[in-house]
Amino acid sequence: MKGVQFLVAFVLLALASKLVSASDPGPLQDFCVAINDTKDGVFVNGKFCKDPKLATAKDFFLPGLNIPGNTSNQVGSMVTPANVQQIPGLNTLGISLVRIDYAPYGGLNPPHTHPRATEILVVVEGTLSVGFVTSNTDNRLFTKVLYPGDVFVFPEGMIHFQFNIGSTNAVAFAALSSQNPGVITIANAVFGSDPAINPDVLAKAFQLDQNIVKQLQSRFWWDNN
Ligand SMILES: *[C@@H]1O[C@H](CO)[C@@H](O)[C@H](O)[C@H]1NC(C)=O
Ligand SMILES: *[C@@H]1O[C@H](CO)[C@@H](O)[C@H](O)[C@H]1NC(C)=O
């Protein structure tokens, strides 16, 4: 009987630790600057790292987040990322940043999700209507109008958006709890997939006429990041 209890406790602990390790792993050393080839590198945590002796301040640096993104596009927004792709020194550190610009009167960062990160956003300029929706079966919407200095959190994996409801440009910065948060823009992934999803699937899922689905699938789905 003791053995069974031990086994149950062990399985529960194993399940719990699986949940806990679902985000980026904690660093195993001071840093691990990412490199593409293994020459002069060491292998840690599943990634190639630059030999720490060869790391420089440049590996941890990115200029230019003062420059507004170009919002002349069909959604009226632009995301400028600062993740491990741009800053190799972020490798293994589980954090990154974006700047988001929104055009006046309706610039939209369309509904999307980050499969690997929680996001914390601060508005620097303008007025944003933001929100996220919880998972099934509640699908509860949490929404708020944000002004400069306001901060809002989008929990990991939740579908969320930001919409400029003001008459001026809006600017926000957001930190994400992953070096490589990933983005799934819902409309693009569903209606702009390559190859296209069978229209019967989408007609039924979205309860739409098949012609409307085909029309949606023929659109160009702009990717703002
Ligand atoms: C690695 O390769 C990618 C794709 O070729 C490139 O964009 C990136 O800058 C490279 N990163 C480093 C650290 O050399
Ligand atoms: C912004 O993007 C539009 C559309 O691609 C382009 O025509 C325009 O020249 C760009 N503006 C700037 C300042 O780069």
Automatic annotation (TrEMBL):
Region forming the signal peptide: 1-22
Disulfide links within the chain: 32-49
Positions with a binding annotation for oxalate: 109, 114, 119
Gene Ontology terms: cellular component: apoplast
A Pfam family it matches: Cupin_1
Compartment list: Secreted, Extracellular space, Apoplast
UniProt xrefs under CDD domains: cupin_OxOx (cd02241)
Predominant location: secreted
Its job: May play a role in plant defense. Probably has no oxalate oxidase activity even if the active site is conserved.
PANTHER family on file: GERMIN-LIKE PROTEIN SUBFAMILY 3 MEMBER 3 (PTHR31238)
Family membership: Belongs to the germin family.
Listed name of the protein: Germin-like protein
Source organism of the structure: Gossypium darwinii
